[in-house]
Amino acid sequence: MIACVAVVGHQNNPLYLQSFTGADDALKLHHIVHCSLDVIDERVNNPKRSVITLNESYLGLLYPTESYKVYGYLSNTKVKFLVVTTDLDVKDTDIRSFFRRFHAAYVDAVSNPFHVPGKKIISRIFAVRVSGIVKAFAPGTYG
Amino acid sequence: MAPLVPKTGDAIFASIDRVNAELFTLTYGAMVRQLLTDLEEVDVVNKQLDQMGYNIGARLIDEFLAKSNVSRCVDFKETADVIAKVGLKMFLGVTASVSNWDPEGSSFSLVLDDNPLVDFVELPDTFQGLHYCNILSGVIRGALEMVSMKTEITWIRDMLHGDDAYELRVKLLKQIPEEYPYKDDE
Description:
The complex is a heterodimer of chains A (143) and B (186).
Chain A: E1 2-8, E2 14-19, H1 26-44, E3 57-64, E4 69-74, E5 80-85, H2 92-110, H3 124-140
Antiparallel strand pairs in A: 1-2, 1-5, 3-4, 4-5
Helix pairs in contact in A: 2-3
Chain B: H1 5-15, H2 21-39, H3 42-68, H4 76-92, E1 97-99, E2 107-112, H5 134-146, E3 149-157, E4 166-175
Antiparallel strand pairs in B: 1-2, 2-4, 3-4
Helix pairs in contact in B: 1-4, 2-3, 3-5
């Protein structure tokens, strides 16, 4: 079950944060996302860069806590996509395809001429699409 | 000649130079955004878009007539069909449908199900009065005026405001006979 998804800009400014569980642990999810940003920075500034990453880098499992797992994905414009899931065994391919769809929805939202780059994403269509992608993801892990 | 018209639109579209659709959409979006920043009032921007469209249409009609070789339209109904099937197809790549003729045959509705100008666009709440595609109404008005038809064009349905398609109402006001700017004895 996906607990929350987040999009963070290249200056670590939050662009979109949506939680799909009950509302009371929203703050905890924010905190987890924030900590994961540090992990991403570490990975990005590491000698892992010897392998030239052409465009998107799927960063994989960033941060396993006792009940959550956080996966990360970095686009070539340094926009970070994070997903926090409560599932214990998620297939890598599922997460990768999730991120691809998420990235596509993000690109469409950002192409809106009324979107200001660097500000939060207020597109309702984006929110609906992300909810759809999240809902479509959950059954796949049991397949 | 009439049965050939729908096919001609596709053929011309395939033969002329084309530009990337996303580049076109993003350029138009940036232009509207800049107009909003410069002019600030939604009504003024609507008028400005219409005026820009008018200037474009006045020049576009020559290219249209040169490339499409359509014969002179017998009546307004034929004009409507040519705009919808040949003109829009040639320049935007979409076909529109013509409907809702009024009893005198002087006004019709042009319905567009698909509009490349508005891909990715979502109007924020502060600009709800904006007719984002107003340039289209200006283009049609400008083009028709150059072929001696004075028209009035209004938006009936707009997908950015929640409707299911784009509908333009085109009303023929009058046909202007051709005037020669020179005196006969010069």
